[in-house]
Amino acid sequence: MKIKFFRVLSLLLCILLCSPILISCKKKEEDKNTNTASTVTDDGYDFPESIELSDGELNIYNINTYYNAIINLDAKEMKGETVSDAIYTRNRNFESIYNIKVVEELMDFNNNDNNFNVMADNVYKSYAAGEDRYDAVYTSLFRQYSMVQRGLLMDLNELTELRLEEKWWDASLNASCMLNDGKRYVASGSLNLMPYELTWLIFFNKQILTDNKIKDDLFELVRNHQWTLEKMYQIAARAITLDGNSYEFDAGNATVYGIAVHNASPMHFVNGTGITFIREDPERKYVFRCSNSESFSDISYRLSMIFTRSDGTAIGNYYETDHDDGYVPVFNKGKALFLNAELKSGMTLKKVLNTDVNYGVLPMPLATTDQENYIADVSNSTMFLAIPKSNRSPGASATAIDALTYMSYSQVMPIYYDQYISYRGLNDKDSLEMLNKYIMPGRIIDRGILYNWTNDFVDSYNQAIFNGTSYSNLVAINTKPVNSKIKSFFSGS
Question: Of 22, 130, 194, 271, which is most buried, counting CB atoms within 10 Å of its CB?
Answer without folding.
Answer: 194
